Amino acid sequence: MILLLGVVSFLRALVFGAAAVAIENAALRQQVAVLHRSVARPRLRQRDRLLWAWLARCWGGWRASLLIVRPATVLAWHRRGFRLYWGWRSRARGKGRPPLDGALRALIQRMARENPTWGRRRIQAELALLGYAVSGLTVARYMGRRPRRPSPTWRAFLAAHLGDVVAVDFFVVPTLTFRLLFAFVVLRHDRRELLQVSVTDHPTAAWAAQQIEAALSGALAPAYLLRDRDGVYGEVFEQRLAARGIRQRLIAPQAPWQNPFAERAIGSIRRECLKHVLVLNERHLRRRLRSYQRYYNAARPHQSLEDNSPWPRTVEPPERGPIVAVPQVGGLHHRYRRAA
User: Fold this and answer.
1) Residue 17 or 106, more confident
2) 8 Å CB contact between 14 and 38
3) Are the beta carbons of 128 and 151 closer than 8 angstroms?
4) Which phi and psi (to 5°) does residue 208 adopt?
5) For residue 130, how many other CB atoms are within 10 A of its CB?
């Protein structure tokens, strides 16, 4: 309709001259002014907006002829049209990464649900051992909770002697009756293997040396033992180590980060086992720690071991059968394998 009126006005200007057109324009403007006073906000259709957006692009005098809306409104219509146009041009065309299989998504959510302390890398490693190659970001997307950032490590001395070092450390565990028990861990650096996890209520140098001998019985003695400067390591402990040809390397005072692998193992024991149980007594704690030691060595993946466990696990392809969950550490964790 507007275009028709424009054509009629153009023909009238040719026939009757510009004076008649100017008078008509003045009359039309007066009527628009009356309408503008009478209507609080005129209702515009989509084609009206498109017309003024087009006029704003190709006609320099459009601002002087615009009365029913503000010029800023027309510019906003133009910007909106620009976004819609390029949004349409940039729309997805069916390409990209294929969607993850529904059964695999359910398996990721199942692992995250059954193992609340696991992050995306742990679940990714378990899936790799089951024959599924899934990226860590994809696992994080479907597991439903944010993965934790890995802690930093200290490797200055350890990098040169990784295969010849064991680390030891004590940590304290309170019981239900507020009694303090002392746990002692012996960790081999090269495979992150927990050689010994022992418990006592009264640690001594002789007891600590006895745990070292029990951990290294039948195995080749390491060249170095990394420990802190705790006073419990007395003369008897040092003599026993010297008799086996093991040299001690002491970390700096109040610098536990210099014994990172042992500290990390203790942190894993606390987060993945002790945080979820109430320790009743020494016997109960010893049983729990031994159960976690078996899980840690035989089932728990480690990033430093290429997402495998200290006792290596083999990859089980999907052809071997359905997946079954084997409870570990009293059901706190699970090991997933193929049922033959």
Assistant:
1) 106
2) no
3) no
4) -65, -40
5) 19
pLDDT, mean over the chain: 81
Q: What is the pTM of this model?
A: 0.60
> Could you tell me if 156 and 162 are in contact, meaning their C-beta atoms sit under 8 angstroms apart?
no
Using the predicted structure, report yes or no on whether residue 190 has a pLDDT greater than 90: no
206 in Cβ contact with 236 (< 8 Å): yes
69-127 confidence digits (pLDDT tens): 566 765 676 677 778 777 777 776 656 667 788 888 899 999 988 888 888 899 999 99
Q: How many angstroms separate the CA atoms of 211 and 217, rounded?
A: 10
pLDDT digits (tens, 9 = 90+) for 163-178: 788 999 999 999 999 9
Q: How far apart are CA 130 and CA 119, in angstroms?
A: 17
Highest mean predicted confidence (pLDDT) among 32-41, 118-127, 143-152, 265-274: 265-274
Q: What is the pLDDT of residue 184?
A: 97
Buried b vs exposed e over 91-107: b needs ≥16 C-beta within 10 Å? eeeeeeeeeeeeebbeb
Dihedral over Cα of 189, 195, 201, 207: its sign: negative
How far apart, in whole angstroms, are the C-alpha atoms of residue 80 and residue 99? 32
Among 287, 298, 295, CA closest to 327: 295
Q: Which residues pair with 225 in a beta bridge?
A: 166, 248
Cα dihedral value 182, 228, 293, 120, nearest 10: 120
C-alpha–C-alpha distance, residues 293 and 340, integer Å = 26
Question: From its phi and psi, is residue 147 left (phi > 0), alpha (psi between -120 and 50) or beta?
Answer: beta
Q: Does residue 166 contact residue 187 with C-beta atoms inside 8 Å?
A: yes
- Side by side, the strands of the sheet bearing 247-250 are 193-200, 180-188, 165-174, 224-227, 247-250
* Overall size of the chain counted in residues: 340
Rounded CA gap, 314 and 331, in Å? 23
Tokens representing 91 are: 């729309």
Distance CA 220, CA 215 (A): 11
